[in-house]
């Protein structure tokens, strides 16, 4: 593999600090297009930084969602290798090089108490300690995911973010204990009731829990056509990819209000095309509002949500453009599970985990957000007991997500 100097401003071919040339691979099409960095782990190893840091830095700088699992480091959208290499140089300058001696022999060290942490670069070459810019968005990610020391004596298989394990054989889950020490907005962490609520436990095959279905439409041409229709309808609000905002969102739920009209239409038109749904949202005048996702999540789907959702991935990718949108979509789906005529059997069947898998694989839900949602009970959308049941049913997916992250970090 071709290598370059870590400091690209150094022309000396005998410069000792080198890294692989960053490679990119564009995958997908339309709203599902993404940029994969196949050799991010090799680059990260040369920089002595977790590969998630540089990937997340790209996302922060480009305003794009990122995901990392199974040796795949992904930035949503199509980005050129030259652009990402420029950003990698910035990352190296900000988080790797020692400002004093300009050597990359540094480690990130976090000091201070919770809420008052500080991060600095500890240089092994000159012994100096230099701080980093604590105002950058990446700092929050680093504090939540501090550098971990590798356990050289521990070896294990890798878990991918698909429904199958990449080392062969079915992926098996241990029993999930969902207790948490962190209180939510209501002050109540998720608890694990003793009663079996239908969530698969030890010895459960993931294929039986989450299924093998790919969330992307089976017909690529149909998916592309839907994407083109959605882009023509300017689903994000103003034609340049940005939503109109939610500051003036109308909370009036009366039958004649925009939300009452949208709700009634969705209930009567669950089979409507994606383009028709977007056209109705535009016609009502609520484009870009996060509450649109609350109504869509609750009323566009039925008890058959597990089968229906994969066909709506393109629509949801177009509608979900912010963290608020993601939270509202989860709230709507939570209400769907709570108010369904077959609520108990639907929750007990593991449908929540299956739905989360589809949304995660479709890059609709952010990993950090869905993990936090899964471990914090809230009565914002449903009563507290129902909220516990829904999250209990999601334990399988949340546990799998956390363990996949942990193993990726260890490797």
UniProtKB/TrEMBL annotation:
Pfam families: eIF-5_eIF-2B, W2
PROSITE patterns: W2
GO biological process terms held by the UniProt record: formation of cytoplasmic translation initiation complex
Transmembrane segments: none
Key words, A-Z: GTP-binding, Initiation factor, Nucleotide-binding, Protein biosynthesis
InterPro entries listed in its UniProt record: ARM-type_fold, IF2/IF5, Transl_init_fac_IF2/IF5_dom, Transl_init_fac_IF2/IF5_N, Transl_init_fac_IF2/IF5_Zn-bd, W2_domain
Residues annotated as domain W2: 245-411
Renumbered residue ranges of the record's region Disordered: 177-199
Keyword Nucleotide-binding: yes
Molecular function via GO: eukaryotic initiation factor eIF2 binding; GDP-dissociation inhibitor activity; GTP binding; translation initiation factor activity
Gene Ontology CC entries for this record: cytosol
Source organism, top-level taxon: Eukaryota
PANTHER family associated with the record: EUKARYOTIC TRANSLATION INITIATION FACTOR, EUKARYOTIC TRANSLATION INITIATION FACTOR 5
Family from the record: Belongs to the eIF-2-beta/eIF-5 family.
Record-given protein name: Translation initiation factor 5
Species of the source: Tremella mesenterica
């Amino acid at each position: 593999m071709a290598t370059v100097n870590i400091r690209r401003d150094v022309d000396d071919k005998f410069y000792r600090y080198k890294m692989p040339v960053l490679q990119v691979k564009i995958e997908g099409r339309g709203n599902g297009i993404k940029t994969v960095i196949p050799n991010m782990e090799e680059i990260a190893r040369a920089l002595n930084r977790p590969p998630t840091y540089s990937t997340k830095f790209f996302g922060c700088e480009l305003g794009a969602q990122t995901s990392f699992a199974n040796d795949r480091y992904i930035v949503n959208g199509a980005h050129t290798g030259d652009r990402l290499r420029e950003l990698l140089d910035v990352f190296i300058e900000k988080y790797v090089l020692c400002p004093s001696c300009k050597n990359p022999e540094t480690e990130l060290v976090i000091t201070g108490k919770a809420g008052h942490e500080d991060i600095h670069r500890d240089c092994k070459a000159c012994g100096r300690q230099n701080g980093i810019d604590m105002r950058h968005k990446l700092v929050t990610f680093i504090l939540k995911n501090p550098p971990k020391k590798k356990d050289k004596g521990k070896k294990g298989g890798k878990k991918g973010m698909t429904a199958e394990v990449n080392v062969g054989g079915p992926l098996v889950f241990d029993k999930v204990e969902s207790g948490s020490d962190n209180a939510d907005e209501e002050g109540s962490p998720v608890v694990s009731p003793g009663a079996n609520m239908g969530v698969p436990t030890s010895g459960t095959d993931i294929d039986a829990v989450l299924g093998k279905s790919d969330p992307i439409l089976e017909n690529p041409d149909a998916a592309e056509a839907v994407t083109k229709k959605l882009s023509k309808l300017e689903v994000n609000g103003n034609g340049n990819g940005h939503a109109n905002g939610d500051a003036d969102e109308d909370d009036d739920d009366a039958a004649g209000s925009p939300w009452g009209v949208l709700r009634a239409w969705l209930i009567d038109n669950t089979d409507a095309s994606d383009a028709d749904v977007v056209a109705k949202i535009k016609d009502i005048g609520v484009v870009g509002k996060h509450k649109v996702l609350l109504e869509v999540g609750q009323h566009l789907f039925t008890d058959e949500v597990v089968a229906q959702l994969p066909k709506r991935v393109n629509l949801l990718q177009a509608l979900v453009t912010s963290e608020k949108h993601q939270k509202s979509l989860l709230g709507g789906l939570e209400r769907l599970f709570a108010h369904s005529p077959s609520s108990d059997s639907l929750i007990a069947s593991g449908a929540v985990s299956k739905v989360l898998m589809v949304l995660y694989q479709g890059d609709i839900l952010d990993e950090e957000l869905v993990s936090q949602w899964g471990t914090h009970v809230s009565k914002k959308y449903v009563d507290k007991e129902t909220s516990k049941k829904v999250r209990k049913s999601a334990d399988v997916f949340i546990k799998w997500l956390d363990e996949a992250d942990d193993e990726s970090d260890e490797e």
